[in-house]
Amino acid sequence: MILHPTDFSSSSDLAFVHALRLATQERGALCLLHVEATEQQAPPWHEYPSVRETLQRWGYLPPGAHRSEVAEKLGLWINKLIRYDHDVTDAIVDYVRDHDVEMVVLSTGDNGVLPRWLRPSIAESVALRARVPTLFVPYGCRGCVSPEDGSVSLNNLLIPVDRKPRADAAIEQAIEALRAFGSEASALTLLHVGEERHFPWPCWPGDFPWKYTRETRPGRPVDAILAKAEELDADLIVLVTEGAHGFLDALRGSTTQQIVRHAPCPVLAIPHDG
Hints:
The protein has helices at 13-26, 51-57, 69-74, 88-98, 120-130, 168-181, 221-232, 254-262; strands at residues 2-5, 29-36, 77-84, 103-108, 134-138, 156-160, 187-193, 211-217, 236-241, 267-271. With 274 residues, the chain is of the alpha/beta class. A ten-stranded mixed sheet has the order 3-2-1-4-5-10-9-6-7-8, sandwiched between helices.
């Protein structure tokens, strides 16, 4: 199941199309979750992008398709859910722990621009506590899913690597993404911020058909990673998070937190289980 928490604002529309495209590819379930503090008013689902209209625009459903065709023709199950809780993070994390959620898709953005519900601190806290892969779609970024036609662009993927935590899980996720959405032109870059002699050699599959490069840079990890993402015109950054320690030191730590907040493209954060 793909879980997409939303506050119904247009700020989360880009994250919505990423969540819908992932669920469509997996022929699985998509849960759209909204959290309210009280039951005083009904959620404005009518103001949110229509799943059927979006799928029709993408050519997955014919014009005028009935609601039942979403499941019958696409194998896609949509669940629109509202929970009442004064703590947004608690409500989302509780849902993740009670259900078979494979990935959370969240919109993030500048604290001074977005409403409280979508501020990075909320998204980061959810990912840190939920311990499932989380796709962050920064507000205003260049997404890798087109809202117009649902096409996916994965030409350049960036994976920051270090000895701890190991980047094997990030590489596995990147390969899965390339197999689903990549093309012959797709390329993957492994970036180590530090000395060349400390470059880690992660496990690598023998049947990897795409181009990949490795690069070492000096400097601050955040600056180096964001600069490389801009140079590559990266479509996706994939990284491993470990908690409060290590090079990519948790969504509450400075490195990953700042990458998520300032990335020019979506960021897929993979929790380290070691």
